[in-house]
Design a protein that fits this description.
Blueprint lengths: L1 H9 L3 H45 L3 H27 L4 H34 L6 H36 L3 H31 L1 H23 L9 H9 L4 H32 L3
């Protein structure tokens, strides 16, 4: 009798559990939609920021474009690495996600001013010099300095949502895959929108302002979702399994394989971009 009472206290009635599951499923669907928009804004920024830095400061050479791309990707990796432990320890990871999105939006509004500062520093050292290794290193350092903060925040958004998936879903792997697919789909849409619609119709500055506003909207919705009591429902077994996963030998091999895969993917992007220039022009 006592054990039955404990069991009753631990598990709500079947109808309540079904209702909670439906609420969490709908909520995760909304979070996935936010991550679609987040991926779109991230790639709009990459296109716009690359265009600003290459056309206004560094020139549109393949080396300059590669430098901006490398700095952007380095920030993504740094954010995922540094802020993932912070996300793991948060009771409401959607709040962290909201703060990150708001920070990205705020940085976007300041970016044109930062480009002017970068241009001033670059001209200070580059005027009267022939292209050499020093100027290449200077380009990378300046691009890294202005892209590090926003790209680091972007890189931290996925760990925050993975932690949310671990807290709100019994199928962590599937839910993480849904979030990642949503973000990638948004990234494709953002690239096309920036290149073929937004910059031509609105201009660079207005595109940045509009995209920053979208980030603030995402942040507001995510913050509200993060305050929902449903977010406090934790599956202890799922969280324990998630936390117990450690850097085993197989995990290290997998991470090495991912690193090689990422290297090849970005090398292909630079090569394909250079090849397509001959057919599409240097737009």
């Amino acid at each position: 009798m006592a054990s039955d009472s404990v069991q009753f206290l631990r598990y709500p009635p079947m109808e309540d559990r079904r209702g909670m599951a439906k609420a969490q499923s709908a909520r995760n669907g909304l979070v996935a939609a936010l991550f679609v928009a987040s991926g779109a804004t991230a790639l709009v920024y990459e296109v716009v920021w690359s265009r600003l830095l290459t056309t206004s400061v560094f020139g549109s050479t393949s080396q300059a474009i590669s430098t901006v791309l490398a700095a952007f990707m380095a920030g993504l990796a740094l954010g995922a690495y540094l802020l993932a432990p912070r996300a793991d320890g948060m009771a409401r990871p959607l709040r962290l996600y909201a703060v990150l999105e708001a920070g990205i939006g705020a940085y976007a509004l300041l970016f044109p001013l930062l480009v002017k500062a970068v241009l001033w520093v670059y001209l200070l050292f580059a005027t009267g010099r022939d292209p050499n290794a020093f100027l290449g290193a200077l380009r990378f350092a300046l691009a890294f300095s202005v892209l590090l903060a926003p790209s680091t925040m972007m890189g931290a958004t996925l760990p925050a949502l993975v932690r949310h998936a671990a807290r709100s879903s019994s199928s962590v792997g599937r839910q993480t895959g849904v979030f990642y697919a949503a973000n990638t789909a948004g990234a494709v849409a953002g690239t096309l929108l920036a290149a073929f619609v937004l910059i031509g119709a609105l201009g660079v500055t207005a595109t940045l302002v509009l995209t920053g506003v979208v980030n603030f909207v995402i942040a507001g919705i995510a913050w509200r979702l993060g305050s929902d009591p449903v977010d406090e429902g934790v599956d202890p077994e799922a969280v324990a399994t998630y936390d117990a996963w450690g850097p085993s030998r197989l995990a290290r091999v997998a991470m090495g394989a991912f690193a090689v895969s990422g290297f090849c993917a970005l090398a292909y992007e630079v090569l394909w971009t250079r090849i397509l220039v001959f057919f599409l022009g240097s737009t």
